[in-house]
């Protein structure tokens, strides 16, 4: 799944269409188009969230067991303490 952000021009045209439809008095169609706008906004956010979750699942085995910053600090602190003796 590749994340492709919605083009700003498409969003602006959808907003313009909603305003035009509402100005003609077709509230039902305007609400339907606002639902499309909501899907575009939230749907893409959910797609991106799922991509981030998949990345976390893929990368977890790579980073598990690697030393933390605190572990590295202690390791280098021990090396520098033993080198000064």
Q: Can you offer a commentary on this structure?
A:
It is a single chain. The chain has 85 residues and is an all-alpha fold. The protein has one domain (8-84). Helix content is 81%, strand content 0%. The chain has helices spanning 8-23, 27-63, 69-84. The mean pLDDT is 85.
List the helices and strands and how they pair.
Blueprint: H1 8-23, H2 27-63, H3 69-84
Helix pairs in contact: 1-2
How much of the sequence lies in strands comes to under 5%
- Which shape, going by the Cα principal axes? rod-shaped
Q: How many whole angstroms does the radius of gyration measure?
A: 26 Å
Q: What is the average of the pLDDT values?
A: 85
Helix content: over 70%
Which H/E pattern describes the elements? HHH
Q: How many separate domains?
A: 1
Total number of beta strands: 0
As residue ranges, the low-confidence spans are: none
Q: Report the oligomer.
A: single chain
Structural class: mainly alpha
Describe the main β-sheet briefly.
none
């Amino acid at each position: 799944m590749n994340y492709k952000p919605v083009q700003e021009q498409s969003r602006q045209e959808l907003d313009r269409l909603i305003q035009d439809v509402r100005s003609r008095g077709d509230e039902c169609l305007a609400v339907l188009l606002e639902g499309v706008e909501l899907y575009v906004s939230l749907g893409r956010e959910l797609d991106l969230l799922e991509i981030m979750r998949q990345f976390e699942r893929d990368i977890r085995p790579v980073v598990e067991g690697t030393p933390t910053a605190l572990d590295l600090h202690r390791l280098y602190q021990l090396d520098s303490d033993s080198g000064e003796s």
